[in-house]
Design a protein that fits this description.
This protein has helices at residues 2-19, 52-59, 82-113, 119-153; strands spanning 70-73, 76-79. By secondary structure, the chain is mainly alpha-helical. The protein has two domains: 2-79, no CATH class; 82-153. Strands 1-2 form a two-stranded antiparallel ribbon.
């Protein structure tokens, strides 16, 4: 098997290379590429990408100049400035935790509804609902505490 692996990889590379040549952004005679940082190329015939406006707000200021240190990803706009990076990460983490807690409330509700009168399943569903609501309250209060301690008391930028 190892003897076949190297020729197979080489053949795959050769076929992929010749049938799928790399695509580069076209460059005007002045040396400026025709694509912007958000991936909109050849504006006369191609439509805007669906997330182009939010990407543009992330990567460019109001006058059209590039903002250094900002990156647009699938999860949104990230900055290399520590305070903005921490704020973005905390937003994602607390949003995901809140979403998971809400889904757990729905799961507990479904458990209670489909228990068919079984007292153990009813109690398990009630416990899950109670734990999930408690989790949501902990998330809300932790955001509040981070804001009070981080911004009001310690004056850490990005927690405001």
């Amino acid at each position: 098997m190892p003897r076949l692996l190297l020729p197979l990889l080489f053949l795959t590379f050769v076929l992929f290379r010749f049938f799928h040549p790399p695509v580069f952004a076209a460059v005007t005679p002045t040396g400026i590429p025709t694509c912007d940082l958000c991936g909109w190329c050849n504006r006369t015939i191609n439509p805007k990408p669906p997330d182009w406006t939010s990407c543009r707000q992330c990567l460019y200021d109001s006058s059209g100049n590039e903002l250094k240190g900002n990156y647009y990803t699938v999860l949104g706009c990230f900055s290399t400035k520590p305070e903005k990076f921490v704020q973005s990460i905390l937003t994602i983490v607390f949003g995901a935790a809140g979403g998971i807690a809400f889904m757990a409330v729905l799961w507990g509700s479904a458990t209670v509804l489909t228990s068919s009168g079984n007292p153990e399943k009813i109690q398990a569903g009630k416990d899950m609902i109670t734990s999930s609501i408690l989790g949501i309250l902990i998330i809300v209060f932790s955001v509040f505490l981070l804001r009070v301690i981080g911004f009001d008391i310690l004056k850490i930028p990005g927690f405001g």
